[in-house]
Amino acid sequence: MSSTDNAPEVTFTDEQWREKLTPAEYAVLRQAGTERPGVGEYTDTTTEGVYSCRACGAELFRSTEKFESHCGWPSFFDPANSDAVILKEDVSLGMRRVEVICKKCHSHLGHVFEGEGYPTPTDQRYCINSISLVLNPAK
C-alpha cells in the first residue's frame, strides 16, 4: 500500500473545500463518507470515457476498466494510471479495508477489495462513490 505522507498537489482550506463542493460532495470527498448504494449517477453507466476526480479533475479511471459488480456503486478493476490513486489502510467501522484516495488532492473516492471472484484481469474491485467522480465522455 502507498503512503499518504506525500503532500497533495491541490490544497484548499476546509472553508475553500466547502465553497467548492456541495454538502453531499464534501461529506464523501473530504470526510470519507459513502453515498447510499444504487443512487449514484455512474452506478450503471456504460458510456465510454474518462472518470476524473470531482474535487480536482485528476484522471482516475477509464470506462474500459469499469465492470458490472451489482454492488450498488461504480466498480473498476484498475485505475487509469496506478499512480493516480493512493491506497491507505482503513480500520474504521470495525472493519479492515483499503481506502482509495486521489493522489492529486487526497480526496476520498471509495475502497478497493480483492479476491471476490469477479472475472477481471486484476481480481480487484475499486468500489468508488459516483459523487467522487465526473465522467468525461469519449468524443
From TrEMBL:
GO cellular component labels: cytoplasm
Cofactor list: Zn(2+)
Top enzyme category: oxidoreductase
GO molecular function, one term: peptide-methionine (R)-S-oxide reductase activity
KW Acetylation (keyword) present: no
EC numbers, comma separated: 1.8.4.12
Keywords assigned by UniProt, alphabetized: Metal-binding, Oxidoreductase, Zinc
Gene Ontology BP terms: protein repair; response to oxidative stress
Catalyzed reactions per annotation: L-methionyl-[protein] + [thioredoxin]-disulfide + H2O = L-methionyl-(R)-S-oxide-[protein] + [thioredoxin]-dithiol
Keyword Cell inner membrane on entry: no
InterPro entries hit by this protein: Met_Sox_Rdtase_MsrB, Met_Sox_Rdtase_MsrB_dom, Mss4-like_sf
NCBIfam families with a match to the protein in the record: peptide-methionine (R)-S-oxide reductase MsrB (TIGR00357)
PANTHER family: METHIONINE SULFOXIDE REDUCTASE, METHIONINE-R-SULFOXIDE REDUCTASE B1
Protein's name according to its UniProt entry: peptide-methionine (R)-S-oxide reductase
Lineage: Bacteria, Bacillati, Actinomycetota, Actinomycetes, Mycobacteriales
